[in-house]
Amino acid sequence: MLAPVSPLLVRPELPADIAAVRNVNECAFGRPEEASLVDALRRSGAITLSLVAEQDGHVVGHVLFSPVEIDRDGSREIAQGLAPMAVLPAWHRKGIGSVLIREGLERLRGAGHGAVVVLGHPAYYPRFGFEPAARFGLRWEVPGHDEAFMALELRPGCLGTRPGVVRYRPEFGAV
């Protein structure tokens, strides 16, 4: 007889999770850069929301949101950037990433944040409501990623359509 599997627990990252979060990101991406990015954002105090997915007492997934700046002709707006999102390879295709993203978006919406951007797979993120960022007049500061650069309004109308350039925190370019 198989032992029962406990339900997936999604919760905020705790200090005791730091090593496990690093492991999840390194294993999921097969390299240390994303894990180092998380560490750098944590050191800078630049994390808006960091959630872990825990299964049977083990961290198996992680999602992080940090502030991004939207420059619209000299005026600055703040949105949230979703990156990274990682699940241990043995736990892929079980819906853990989707649960993390949905929970993160709901928590951000509940906290009053207006919008989220992501540079990600254009066939994956639309299921959460993301649309091409160009629809909102937005482009990423690094050219050539238009199809993969997407945005989601957590508050309808908050992004508008005025042209703007989205800039991620400096930690994204430092790792």
UniProtKB/TrEMBL annotation:
<dbReference type="InterPro" id="IPR000182">
    <property type="entry name" value="GNAT_dom"/>
</dbReference>
<feature type="domain" description="N-acetyltransferase">
    <location>
        <begin position="8"/>
        <end position="155"/>
    </location>
</feature>
<dbReference type="InterPro" id="IPR016181">
    <property type="entry name" value="Acyl_CoA_acyltransferase"/>
</dbReference>
<dbReference type="GO" id="GO:0016747">
    <property type="term" value="F:acyltransferase activity, transferring groups other than amino-acyl groups"/>
</dbReference>
<dbReference type="InterPro" id="IPR050276">
    <property type="entry name" value="MshD_Acetyltransferase"/>
</dbReference>
<dbReference type="Pfam" id="PF13508">
    <property type="entry name" value="Acetyltransf_7"/>
</dbReference>
<protein>
    <submittedName>
        <fullName>N-acetyltransferase</fullName>
    </submittedName>
</protein>
